[in-house]
Amino acid sequence: MPSVDLNSDLGEGFGTYRCGDDDAMLSIVTSANVACGLHAGDPEVMARTFAIARERGVAVGAHPGFPDLWGFGRRRLPFSNGEIERLVAYQIGAATALAAYAGHRITYVKTHGALGNIACEERGVADAVARAVRAVDPGLALLANALTELVAAGEAAGLETHQEIYADRGYTETGQLIPRSQPGAMIEGAEEAAARVLEMVEAGAVITAGGKHLPTLIRSICVHGDSDHAVATASRVRERLEQVGIVLKPFRPIAT
Length: 256
Fold this sequence. Notes:
This protein is of the alpha/beta class. The protein contains eight helices and ten strands. The chain has one domain: TIM Barrel (Alpha-Beta Barrel).
């Protein structure tokens, strides 16, 4: 049977602030992208998230973003490519340490928010991310938005690179995510999101807002963990995929 991964951005609270329902999501997804303390997260949240993921057989990855708690990492900050490279390396190190502390191991890296969007669009930033991953651990995989510069950079750097689509986001005609400030950016209904995912997985393509099919190999599906409808969406996506015989499992084997 064909298989696909279902991932979510988790561990995005910090201190006494909670973001999303990580406990519920970790019972649905097969991979968790864990915030590394700069856009969200802290040592307590990270350790707890990694521990629960280990208990439930969920693969884990580092989810680095810009140092921007106030903006949740979704604001574009003017860092140089070199600074971005070191910021990503720093966060991978933090994730590696806290995962080990919790008895788990990270197997991949996925960029967050504005950092991820810029890396998808600008090859120089994408190369900086790929260099950071390779420098810290060339055995880590890179999970990247399908059909972007980040995919090309990861492959050029010799990293195991996997492409993902979003269940809860719309796509432009070039295959980029529609900016959150524009109509059609967010897919908020669980049924609509699940139907779109199933259509894209079966077609082997990103489907744009205008209906264009952009062929790509889809290895993972992301549902953002911070939305009010995250649990319902992730649950329905999983149900629809399993109903047609698609197996849900991590795109990268869980490290032991």
